[in-house]
Automatic annotation (TrEMBL):
Organism: Tulasnella calospora MUT 4182
Protein name (database record): Peptidyl-prolyl cis-trans isomerase
Entry GO MF terms: peptidyl-prolyl cis-trans isomerase activity
One of the protein's GO biological processes: positive regulation of transcription initiation by RNA polymerase II
GO cellular-component term (any): nucleus
């Protein structure tokens, strides 16, 4: 079988690795019972101490993810998925409102929708923008992010780039 449990240095959480095929995954291999998973080499990493360890915020910085919907009035009305965006701002806001209803406070759903739909290149990281400080983002974006509590999602935020939903993650 070749499966074992390892610890991710970057995420600080356990993952499954098959030494024979070099496949890695976060979820247990299919077809394994709970007992089989618990008997794998390195299974001790699966205990509670393998949950991700939050990293402290750099001084004066926040971390956020966003879901961007551009419109024809955006400063650059094109994206990785559409070369010429023609929707109106009202249409973009309506699209965001639909995502907002689907997310309903669920960070995983936010990342899933951002990855599939955001008009920003950060879509590939589930909308994660990493850490940033004051003066690094457009003012409405910055003000909205700094006003949020960690884990809180914004309402629609308008910038020159388009309209966004923001999720403060750190």
């Amino acid at each position: 079988m070749g499966w074992e449990v390892r610890m991710s240095n970057s995420r600080g959480m356990a993952y499954f690795f098959n030494a024979e095929t070099s496949e890695s995954r976060w979820d247990p291999p299919s077809g394994f019972t709970k007992e089989e998973v618990e008997s794998l080499p390195g299974a001790g990493y699966l205990k509670a101490n393998s949950q991700p360890k939050p990293k402290p915020a750099p001084a004066g910085q926040v971390r956020a993810s966003h879901l961007l919907v551009k419109h024809r009035g955006s400063r650059r009305p094109s994206s990785w998925k559409e070369s010429n965006i023609t929707r109106s701002k009202d249409e973009a806001i309506a699209i965001l409102r639909g995502y907002q209803a689907q997310i309903n406070g669920d960070a995983e759903k936010f990342a899933e929708l951002a990855e599939a739909n955001s008009d920003c290149s950060s879509h590939a990281a589930g909308g994660d923008l990493g850490w940033f400080g004051k003066g690094q983002m457009q003012r409405p974006f910055e003000e909205a992010t700094f006003a949020l509590e960690v884990g809180q999602m914004s309402d629609v935020v308008e910038t020159d780039s388009g309209v966004h939903l923001l999720l403060r993650t750190g």
